[in-house]
Predict the structure.
Amino acid sequence: MHDELKQIISQAMNTRFDFEQKLIQRAWEDEAFKQELLSNPKAVFARESGEELPKDIEFEVIQETTNKVYLVLPTNPAPDITQELSEEALETVAGGIDGCTVWSRVKSVCIGWSAVRNANNLA
């Protein structure tokens, strides 16, 4: 069970990374897109992912410079993987509902996971 859960988390993180890379590539190629991404990242993320984002989620885009590099340390999606799963979580693992329900407290992973379903729609 724990290996399955780790695989789901890993897949979600990879999917998020791929989506973010597409946004970065587009920002490098399109100055107007880059400015919009910097000034209103939540709207751009929602539009490009095709997902409606929760109101309590905040987005921030920080542009690195030649003299300053940022490391983003994501929230640990499974800080206590030894705890028992709820009935709702068990249904999810069994394929009953969307996997993001299990990880609702780790919204950044779920948003990335669900958003990348639509990442191929990026220009």
User: Anything to note?
Assistant: Confidence is low (pLDDT under 50) at residues 97-123. The chain is about 50% helix and 0% strand. The chain has one domain: 2-121. The helical segments are 2-29, 31-39, 41-49, 87-93, 107-116.
